[in-house]
Design goal:
Elements (H helix, E strand, L loop, with lengths): L1 H19 L6 E9 L4 E6 L5 E6 L4 E7 L4 E7 L2 E7 L4 E7 L3 H4 L1 E4 L2 H19 L1 H6 L2 H20 L6 H20 L1 H8 L9 H8 L6 H4 L3 H21 L4 H10 L4 H15 L6 H11 L3 H13 L15 E3 L4 E2 L8 E7 L4 H16 L5 E7 L6 H10 L5 E4 L7 H5 L7 E5 L5 E3 L9 H8 L3
Helix pairs in contact: 3-5, 5-6, 6-10, 10-11, 12-13, 12-14, 13-14
InterPro entries: Redoxin (IPR013740), Thioredoxin-like_sf (IPR036249), Thioredoxin_domain (IPR013766), Thioredoxin_ResA/DsbE_sf (IPR050553)
Organism: Seonamhaeicola algicola
Keywords: Cytochrome c-type biogenesis, Disulfide bond, Redox-active center
Length: 460
């Protein structure tokens, strides 16, 4: 009897141990509350290509599960909130913030809280550096070197004070801090020239030497440091511009040539992915661009995502019903919805007061609007300015005597109209027919002669 009892107890202990043995998870929990917001989309992304969109309720609350394949840095973006967070499988992270006070109010709790609040501190320091950019970049080379070295030392001290950081993260982050210093240094020549009103200013060879010697083929650092990745991307743009100037190549071909010259395949795949993600929604030849990307990339996950994007863009093909906007505030008073404009063509300018290329188009748009004022077409400008900047929007309309129908979204970029049109950058121009169907989701700009040619083919 005693032997049987012993066996039973032993078996029970084994079963209890088995039940307690944790099953590995491939997800993290992410929740929080953002005050002073109307809600919208919170985006989580990583330099390895991970993306996730989380809905933030109009109360500011959100909660979701992130299925991640690897531990690492993930970028969080919601309105003015932009920061990095270290997320691990099995983590439970909570966020508290005030959208009006953005990064200054941000607090993270839960898993890896001390490390994650370091990343918040780092972002706040970078914002502070840029807010004081005129003073910083007006300095001479030696003084500027001291400023960015002190900036680096401050972050290193903060990082070294944190306990229990995974060794690989600490090593990568120390390199990333230095890449932040180098990024600021790479901007010095242009920024100093601007603030000193000397556009011909050139930094000394000694000052630029370490930038010229920097290797831009480190895939590990590319996938960890946004500063390193930005320097790689900037180098590609510079090469593309050189090919555009010297070889008289169309910019798209020049950019492709620069991309194909990247020797590290991981970096090449990532840059190809970024380029096609931006280009495809605006492309006039989506099938060809998709095939070119498939031929160049070896990353099957990227290829799968771009195929999905290509498929989703079919709703923006010519003849498809246009996504709608509803009850956008009208500068002239009241609100306006897209359905209110049926019966005429609608030419839409998606813009913002802070956007230089948008403001460049305003005089051209005014001339086109005046020419077609009594024709079968509405000219609608939709501002993506934040609600807190509404007075700036109204002031610019008055100062520039902008005509047409002037509207502003109810939540800057975080609206269904913007997201359904896959708008990745502004200005973007859209042409809709009198029945509310798409003519072109990426129509010619007012400064482009092809716009009038398009209007002529439609007998507007």
């Amino acid at each position: 009897m005693g032997k049987i009892k012993f066996i039973t107890i032993a078996f029970s202990i084994i079963m209890l141990w088995a039940c307690k043995k944790e099953t590995p998870v491939n997800y993290a929990l992410f929740s929080g509350n953002i005050s002073n917001t109307k809600g919208g989309e919170l985006k989580v992304s990583a330099l390895n290509g991970f993306t996730k969109t989380i809905n933030v309720k109009d109360t500011g609350a959100f909660s979701d599960t992130l299925f991640i394949e690897e531990n690492g840095l993930y970028n969080i973006r919601f309105g003015n909130l932009r920061f990095a967070t270290y997320i691990t499988q099995g983590a439970n992270i909570s966020l508290e913030a005030n959208e009006k006070d953005a990064i200054k109010s941000l607090k993270l709790s839960g898993s890896n809280a001390e490390l994650n609040n370091y990343f918040v501190y780092k972002e706040a320091q970078n914002i502070g550096f840029m807010e004081n950019r005129e003073n910083n970049y007006s300095a001479d080379e030696a003084t500027f070197e001291t400023k960015i070295t002190n900036f680096k030392n401050n972050l290193e001290e903060r990082l070294n004070a944190i306990q229990n950081i995974p060794d690989d993260i600490k090593t990568k982050e120390l390199r990333a801090i230095n890449y932040g210093r180098l990024t600021k240094k790479s901007q010095y020549e242009r920024m100093h020239g601007y603030f000193s009103k000397n556009r011909d200013f050139k930094a000394s060879g000694t000052f630029k030497q370490e930038l010229n010697n920097l290797s831009l083929n480190n895939a590990e650092d590319y996938l960890y440091s946004s500063d390193y990745q930005a320097m790689v991307s900037n180098n590609i743009r510079q090469k593309a511009y050189e090919y555009y100037q010297k070889d008289s190549l169309p910019y798209q071909e020049a950019n492709a040539k620069a991309l194909y010259e990247i020797s590290n395949q991981t970096i090449k795949n990532a840059e190809l992915y970024k380029a096609i993600s931006m280009r495809l929604p605006m492309s006039k030849n989506k099938d060809k661009d998709l095939q070119d990307f498939i031929n160049a990339s070896t990353n099957q996950k990227h290829i799968s995502k771009i195929k999905e994007l290509h498929e989703s863009l079919k709703i923006l093909d010519k003849g498809q019903p246009s996504p709608k906007f509803n009850n956008y505030e009208n500068y002239a008073g009241g609100t306006t919805s897209l359905d209110d404009l049926k019966g005429k063509y609608v030419y839409i300018d998606v813009w913002a007061t802070w956007c230089g290329p948008c403001k460049y188009e305003i005089p051209f748009l005014k001339k086109v609007e005046e020419k077609y004022h009594d024709k079968n077409i509405h000219f609608v400008s939709i501002s993506t300015d934040k609600q807190k900047d509404k007075d700036k929007w109204k002031q610019m309309i008055a100062e520039k005597e902008m005509g047409g129908i002037q509207l502003i979204t109810d939540n800057d970029f975080n609206t269904s109209f913007i997201s359904q049109y896959k708008i990745m950058g502004i200005p973007q121009f859209i042409l809709i027919d009198p029945q509310g169907n798409i003519v072109q989701a990426n129509a010619p700009r007012p400064s482009d002669e092809k716009l009038i040619e398009l209007f002529n083919t439609l007998d507007i």
